[in-house]
Amino acid sequence: MLVSVCYGKDKLELKLPDSVECDYYECKAIAKNIDAHAFLGRVTMAEKELYLVSQADLFVVNDAYRPTPTDEILNRLYQNGRLSKKATFLVATGCHQPPDETQLKSIFGNLYGKLKNRILIHNALDKSSMVHLGEIEGGHPVYINRFFYEAEKVVVIGSVEPHYFAGYTGGRKAIFPGLCDYETTVQNHRLAVSFDASPVKLEGNPVEQNLQLMMSLIADKSILSIQTVLDKNNQMQAVFCGKIDSSFRRACELVQKIYSTKINKRYDLLLAEVLPPLDSNLYQLQKSLENSQTVVADSGTIILFSPCKEGIGSDSFYRLADRWRESSLDAEDEDDFGIHKLSRVAQIAQRIDVRLYSELAEDVPDKVFIKTEKNPQEIIDRLIGNNKSIRVALVRDAGHTVLRAH
Prior knowledge:
The chain is an alpha/beta fold. The protein has 2 domains: 2-26 and 264-405, 2-enoyl-CoA Hydratase, Chain A, domain 1 (Alpha-Beta Complex), CATH 3.90.226.30; 36-259, Rossmann fold, CATH 3.40.50. It is 29% helix and 25% strand. The protein has helices at 36-49, 70-79, 101-108, 112-115, 146-150, 182-190, 206-215, 244-259, 286-292, 315-323, 339-351, 363-366, 376-384, and strands at 2-7, 10-15, 22-25, 58-62, 88-92, 119-121, 130-136, 140-145, 154-159, 162-163, 167-168, 223-230, 236-242, 260-263, 267-273, 296-305, 353-357, 371-372, 392-395, 402-405. It has a 6-stranded parallel sheet, sandwiched between helices. The longest helix is centred in the middle third of the chain and has 16 residues, at 244-259.
């Protein structure tokens, strides 16, 4: 039996014995894109509950690291007379680098020329641009962007997708970490060393619980939320409008149906194809690993297929590996940004055999606890051998498809 695996622009043909069954998993297809009429209808319903979008003095939008169709949403609002000429637009960067003009044009689309003098960019390192909100459990002080704090009526535009430790993107994440200080983001991400922080999980997730503590500090803030759900091709499929928590949670329900599958078996061998753009570098690879690893049996093997043509993707993450204390996998006391990512991969690699077929030099993945695989057919043959009872699965588009152990 031949199994076809996408690898960059190519397809790899891998042989499995006819006696071995291979299960296949992928994102579920949903009906159609939401049209302008349906979109505006949902916005109108939210306006009846809260206030008119045209009254908002601040719009909070994602940066270019999220696939949110901000330009499409703003254009629909503009065409319908719902964008005030006095409104300001604040880009929620979190701890990312500020967007350059090319990225800003991508975010705002054909409205960039009209809006560019009203666009602000959050800087997580500049506390002079923030207000001290208060403290959360443990006495940690939380700071928030001053423009957000002072705005009377806010519209938050986001997109909800699976997130490998926050459960989901979107909703509250536009504000925390989108508009808060660097130290607050670090303390939140530190909680991601726990595997209770996992894709499409909110209940009992320590990262989500911490986000809710921070959201309680702005409970009285007037926020109208527009949350989109996209398909794997980043086409808008649904929109949920209203209060930020309720719109977010309704979007999460649909995201789970599209991207997530509960599985009551464990696999000895999991083949995981990683598609663009998540196949670009080693740093991005973790999402695909996290989405699938729970259904791999203890001591089982996952092979990730990702060219990683751009190399490592994060030099700071790679340098962090040089200082990693292999004798201790408890990273809760570390302040280094990104330690949670390294800690999680290290723990996964202790439980299962993690391998990567890529164009990276052999010693590069090894440094972050991922073994280089130069010949996937060879390891498949070795693992299967004469074991007719081996459990094998192929995950299509592992960067988006979430498999949950049941």
